[in-house]
């Protein structure tokens, strides 16, 4: 087929021809101004490419959203750095910007992003759970998870983590918990669900523990992620309120159509929109995506986790990092992150994942805040009313349709390779294409850099430059040059 026939209109050929007369350097459209899109744009901009970023929202950051309406930074989306170590690809940026991390866990914490060093749990009647009970049930939970590995080895077919836990408890009655201990076990499972942003009956037993977690534990970004977003976006041509509806691609280039009908053309495009947007088919591809790409999009799950942040005029809670509510079911469990301990501001953040997160989105902001206050008053009957509150809605947000990706039961082993694989001059970024670090900020960042490097190589080779004789000199982002400073960490 003649390459021209890949385009549905002569408009694209004409527009590309006009632009080629005006610009000698390759051009790339990056779709999405989350950290993955900005990392891709930064990489290409610093390599002297012409870059245009199209973002559907009226702000930068995507699923990173640092809100300042409390008078201080509060991350209503991503807030942790998973892997507080120099090997983390974000470490040079964090060091160079002088950002502080508040470490909430070391390596191999049973709570994933928290240690059991600074916490307090209560039952639904407001009675504090004895610390020894929490520790003992935590050890039992570790044993249960270890036994699920044996279940996995015995069953060639995948199953959910919840199903595997049921098998373990059937085989080992001594691991079953009763009364208060059972409620604490449900709370541990609830925290596990929060890590994946999905219910335990949806999480793959085959892969749940196969993620390559960086060393150094986990840390909250005390000043929020916004400084990193702004640093990456500096001097980049970013167009907000530009919702992409169609991507036409062919040998001569790509044409991206936005919601108001305008067309933007370039030599290539990097697509970093959330997986939820791709799953909902909100962007039309011409030609259509191949079946293997569509299947890869379908074979990954998208989780949901929401935050309800409450600002008070005074601190009435204990000086611990985590406040939890144990209950007979994971759905009824809950927990608050105490930002006062990490940042000094009188703020508690209630966090909900999976089906419960979606159910909370059915409530108005006011109703959701009142529900959370009822939970808080079970623990602290004399709790004061919040001065302000914020509510996230990632699951129904039309710009995200979910929080981050996770492995569905029975997914193919090559799903990430297929999702990441380019299609001619279309390249794919975002946290969902990160093989080893999906669902994380540094995974999204690295995926954006990788997509940009692959795009750069493709376009330069297409222009006839052999490897080793590339004419463009990459200028590293100025912030990345400051690499001798240590990462600033509190709570050592």
Give the helices and strands, then pairings:
Elements: H1 10-22, E1 27-31, H2 35-46, E2 50-54, E3 66-67, E4 74-75, E5 80-82, H3 91-97, E6 100-105, E7 119-122, H4 131-154, H5 161-171, H6 179-196, E8 218-221, H7 226-233, E9 237-239, E10 244-250, E11 253-258, E12 263-266, E13 268-271, H8 275-279, E14 284-286, H9 291-299, E15 300-302, E16 305-311, E17 322-325, E18 334-338, H10 339-343, E19 347-353, H11 354-361, H12 365-379, E20 388-391, E21 405-407, H13 415-420, E22 426-428, H14 441-462, E23 488-490
Helix pairs in contact: 2-7, 2-14, 4-5, 4-6
> Which structural class matches the secondary elements?
alpha/beta
Q: What's the number of helices? A: 14
How many angstroms separate the termini?
63 Å
Q: List how many beta strands DSSP finds.
A: 23
The share of residues in helices is 25-40%
Residue share in β-strands? 15-25%
For the sheet with most strands, the description reads: 6 strands, mixed
Question: Low-confidence parts, pLDDT < 50 over ≥5 residues?
Answer: 1-9, 471-476, 478-484
| Principal-axes shape call | globular
Mean pLDDT: 91
Strand adjacency order, main sheet: 7-17-18-19-16-20
Rg estimate, integer Å = 24 Å
Explain the overall architecture.
There is one protein chain. The chain has 492 residues and is α/β, with parallel strands linked by helices. The protein is built from 14 helices and 23 strands. The protein has helices spanning 10-22, 35-46, 91-97, 131-154, 161-171, 179-196, 226-233, 275-279, 291-299, 339-343, 354-361, 365-379, 415-420, 441-462, and strands spanning 27-31, 50-54, 66-67, 74-75, 80-82, 100-105, 119-122, 218-221, 237-239, 244-250, 253-258, 263-266, 268-271, 284-286, 300-302, 305-311, 322-325, 334-338, 347-353, 388-391, 405-407, 426-428, 488-490. The chain has a six-stranded mixed sheet with strand order 7-17-18-19-16-20. Strands 9-2-1-13-22 form a five-stranded parallel sheet, covered by helices on one side. β17 (322-325) and β18 form a beta hairpin. The protein is globular, with a radius of gyration of 24 Å.
């Amino acid at each position: 087929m003649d390459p021209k026939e890949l385009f549905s209109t002569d408009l694209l050929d004409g527009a590309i021809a006009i632009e080629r007369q005006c610009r000698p350097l390759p051009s790339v459209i990056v779709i999405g101004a989350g950290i993955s899109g900005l990392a891709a744009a930064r990489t290409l901009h610093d390599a002297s490419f012409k870059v245009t970023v199209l973002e559907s929202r009226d702000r930068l950051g995507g699923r990173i959203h640092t809100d300042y309406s409390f008078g201080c930074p509060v991350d209503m989306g991503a807030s942790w750095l998973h892997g507080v170590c120099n090997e983390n690809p974000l470490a040079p940026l964090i060091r160079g910007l002088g950002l502080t991390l508040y470490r909430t866990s070391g390596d191999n914490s049973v709570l994933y992003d928290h240690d059991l060093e600074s916490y307090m749990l209560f039952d639904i009647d407001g009675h504090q759970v004895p610390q020894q009970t929490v520790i003992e049930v935590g050890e039992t939970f570790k044993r249960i998870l270890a036994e699920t590995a044996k279940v996995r080895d015995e069953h060639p077919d995948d199953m959910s983590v919840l199903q595997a836990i049921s098998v373990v408890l059937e085989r080992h009655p001594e691991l079953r918990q009763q009364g208060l201990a059972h409620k604490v076990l449900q709370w541990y499972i609830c925290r596990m669900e929060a890590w994946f942003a999905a219910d335990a009956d949806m999480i793959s037993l085959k892969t749940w523990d196969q993620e390559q977690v960086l060393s150094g534990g986990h840390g909250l970004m005390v000043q929020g992620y916004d400084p990193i977003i702004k640093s990456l976006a500096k001097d980049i041509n970013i167009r907000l309120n530009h919702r992409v509806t169609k991507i036409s691609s062919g040998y001569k280039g790509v044409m991206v159509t936005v919601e108001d009908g305008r067309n933007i053309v370039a030599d290539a495009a990097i697509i970093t929109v959330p997986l939820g947007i791709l799953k909902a088919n909100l962007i039309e591809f011409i030609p259509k995506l191949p079946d293997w790409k569509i299947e890869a999009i379908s074979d990954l799950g998208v989780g949901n986790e929401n935050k309800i942040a409450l600002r008070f005029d005074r601190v009435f809670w204990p000086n611990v990092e985590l406040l939890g509510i144990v209950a007979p079911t994971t759905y009824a469990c809950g927990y608050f992150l105490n930002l006062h301990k990490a940042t000094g501001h009188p703020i508690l953040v209630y966090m909900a994942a999976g089906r419960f997160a979606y159910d909370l989105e059915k409530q108005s902001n006011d109703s959701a805040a009142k529900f959370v206050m009822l939970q808080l008053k079970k623990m602290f009957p004399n709790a004061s009313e919040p001065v302000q509150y914020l509510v996230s809605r990632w699951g129904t947000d039309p710009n995200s349709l979910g929080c981050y990706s996770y492995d569905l039961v029975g997914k193919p082993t090559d799903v990430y390779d297929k999702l990441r694989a380019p299609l001619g001059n279309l390249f794919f970024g975002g946290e969902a294409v990160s093989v080893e670090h999906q669902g994380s900020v540094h995974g999204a960042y690295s995926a954006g850099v990788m997509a940009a490097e692959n795009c750069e190589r493709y376009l330069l080779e297409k222009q006839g430059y052999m490897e080793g004789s590339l004419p463009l000199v990459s200028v590293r982002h100025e912030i990345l040059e400051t690499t001798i400073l240590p990462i600033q960490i509190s709570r050592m």
